[in-house]
Write a structure and sequence with these properties.
Three copies of one chain form a homotrimer.
Chain A (H helix, E strand, L loop, with lengths): L8 H5 L19 H4 L5 H28 L4 H9 L4 H13 L6 H14 L1 H17 L6 H7 L1 H17 L3 H15 L2 E2 L4 E2 L4 E3 L5 E2 L4 E2 L4 E3 L3 E3 L11 E2 L4 E2 L4 E3 L3 E2 L4 E2 L4 E2 L8 E3 L4 E2 L13 H4 L6 H4 L5
Parallel strand pairs in A: 1-4, 2-5, 3-6, 4-7, 5-8, 6-9, 7-10, 8-11, 9-12, 10-13, 12-14
Antiparallel strand pairs in A: 14-15
Helix pairs in contact in A: 3-4, 5-6, 7-9, 9-10
Amino acid sequence: MSVSSPVDTNSKNLLPHDDHSCEKFFTPSSRYGINTLHTSSVVEQSEKVEDENYVWMKMQEEAKVDVIVEPILSSYYYVSILSQKTLETALANHLAVKLSSVSLPSTTLSDLFVRILESDKEIMYAMKNDLKAVNERDPACISHVHCFLNFKGFLACQAHRVAHNLWSNGRKILAVMIQNRVSEVFGVDIHPGAKIGSGILLDHATGIVVGETAVIGNDVSILHGVTLGGTGKAHGDRHPKIGDGVLIGAGTCILGNIKIGDGAKIGAGSVVIKEVPPRTTVVGNPAKLIGGKNNPIKLDKIPSHTMDHVAHISEFYDYVI
Amino acid sequence: MSVSSPVDTNSKNLLPHDDHSCEKFFTPSSRYGINTLHTSSVVEQSEKVEDENYVWMKMQEEAKVDVIVEPILSSYYYVSILSQKTLETALANHLAVKLSSVSLPSTTLSDLFVRILESDKEIMYAMKNDLKAVNERDPACISHVHCFLNFKGFLACQAHRVAHNLWSNGRKILAVMIQNRVSEVFGVDIHPGAKIGSGILLDHATGIVVGETAVIGNDVSILHGVTLGGTGKAHGDRHPKIGDGVLIGAGTCILGNIKIGDGAKIGAGSVVIKEVPPRTTVVGNPAKLIGGKNNPIKLDKIPSHTMDHVAHISEFYDYVI
Amino acid sequence: MSVSSPVDTNSKNLLPHDDHSCEKFFTPSSRYGINTLHTSSVVEQSEKVEDENYVWMKMQEEAKVDVIVEPILSSYYYVSILSQKTLETALANHLAVKLSSVSLPSTTLSDLFVRILESDKEIMYAMKNDLKAVNERDPACISHVHCFLNFKGFLACQAHRVAHNLWSNGRKILAVMIQNRVSEVFGVDIHPGAKIGSGILLDHATGIVVGETAVIGNDVSILHGVTLGGTGKAHGDRHPKIGDGVLIGAGTCILGNIKIGDGAKIGAGSVVIKEVPPRTTVVGNPAKLIGGKNNPIKLDKIPSHTMDHVAHISEFYDYVI
């Protein structure tokens, strides 16, 4: 089963955003969600449709307000949002315009993208959750339209979902071409083979590198300059596996086929080459467990949601008065 | 008062470049200059005009020599420099060409930029000081024209000044759109809310990230890959405050609403999550004070001017014979 | 003698890829190969021609297969590969298209590049070795055409070779303009004065910065986010010298005019400001010798070939069970 399958939305409902308690998040079924995700039920499917329409309607409303405030953007908003029939065509068009070049016209890319987005419902489901994630976790995000039009981490992630579809269907040449255009245009280099869940925030995003056999769970927040890298030149499973709810700080390198447990937090600038237990915090170069190996401090909130980069780390690093 | 206001140019005259003594730089009035800057006098205003004209005349002379040496560039130099009436129109046009896209034509952007640059004199004042800063501190800089046409750190900084003007005047949608084009084109992601002083060098610049409530003082040098980041997802004042004369080495993360004192030096690859006293050097992950907490070594030169990344650090790091 | 001169290909033949033994690699003549490289013999020259034709013929075959699999790419492949007479014109055209802008038309750049590539045989020799290096060391590389069309590290390196030719021939204005377009388009900032050997892999490449007086030997692998930086603002020799066969992990900063010995390995995220002996491993911030100063562990394989980022480091970093 693909990692981009929708997760049980019930388990998400157990996570009130006021609280961010981890207790119910870390149920046995969601631990290492990267392995235990299950397909969505009929009820969830209908919720999905409503949700998707809600997002698209909201985006169109926001766009209408924006062009009243800034008529200078009318043409841009018309082409990108207001003239589009569906969220699928809007996304296909916007990605195509961004990734096109003299060699790859936007019409060619747009046709290709829209076919994939209309046939692969999991991409649209995940994309909607990504939009929500950016809105909820990034205080710099003004609106859905703001994220959709501008956030290169969001756009790079959606382009990757398309490239992953192509890769999984044997169209490797196109997949790697998209990967490389995304790397040129957004500075984000995700191998099309990588499996990425939903509810993903790639914040700022410049310099992110994700290798071929990496797996990223659901509700993960990754800052710019993060590497999920391999080691050695052998083929085969050689990249990190990131659990659900993980927060990875800016400039961190995680190398090799190692597990980062659900709800773990990796401090900025860390170098991680060994497994990290669930709900713990590691930091430093080399990364060390906050609280020590035998009794590491356990996080009681989901770090990818709180986006708290320094809790526990701050006390640990008592180096300046 | 805005941080981009001109500083007292007299205090700059007290800093002979042969000497770089800090004694007069760190006067009470300039300490945490981010809070104590005062508006320029009439004398300074007239000096400003002369200075600006000097820079513009010098750039045109350099451009004329360049096209004699490389006729291949005649058309490019004509459009960018030689046909332009003022430094304002030249900058507006050059930024517009760089940041334009299918969706945002360069004429639209150029009209917008020139209106802002002609009305906001502080931007042009700061821009001129940035040009000087690059010329004085970066040995790889050949000429003013070289910097003006090519240095993406310089161009990203000027685009930010325009975006900050828009942001401060309530035109947030345009401001964040410029922010994101700068992030795509130059790999530099500065939130338009951030306040940045003058005499700024963003060297190499790829991967720089500056958050919404960050404040950067005057005469600061920041290398590529530096993050001035927030922590948590709450709105409000959450990013670093960088004093005057600070040097921040490549790849460093400074996180949270903490002060980096005037004239401090942060070594490359550091992670800083606590206040750094003025004129001290911190380095490492986690960053540590060189000389120790109780008796840190005090710098006697302005690190952003000397660009000396290893003095004191080198002795401290005696790890290889 | 230029560092981009061909190395003795016999010494390469002594390195069976199954083995990667260092014994014959680290002969006295190849130690600090950056200083001791010698020009190629007549025999090697004829080998070069055959090799180059082999690569070009192979690329055309691959391209023909690719367009059968993906007819959508026919036009792109025709212009980039299939209609090109030689590898020189193909490279000149492809780089020109990537680096062109409104200000710098691709035809102007293409004419300039093809003249340099057809007159400077060392560039084509080095480029061919770079293609081989990517194919041999990067498991994500599908084919020669895949690398040639897409890998921004590869393309940035070739653009640098052209810019270095211009710089060495006194055409500094054009050289720095190419440098800065490469920095904008690929996020790779290599000063045109830097000397770079052959068989170079710049993997992922975003954020790489190489200073003016840096020297990189042969068969070197450098990951994204690596800085070979200077210190201070004085002109003169101020950047690192990287020996043959070195592997530099992601996000590492090497600062100042220091030597990194042949066959050394620098772990990801390291900060290196002192000399590193040949065949040793350093890691951390500040970087430390694995095994200690007096008895560092010596590598018996060439790290740039094995691309093993964690051997020895993993044991050293026993911080999580």
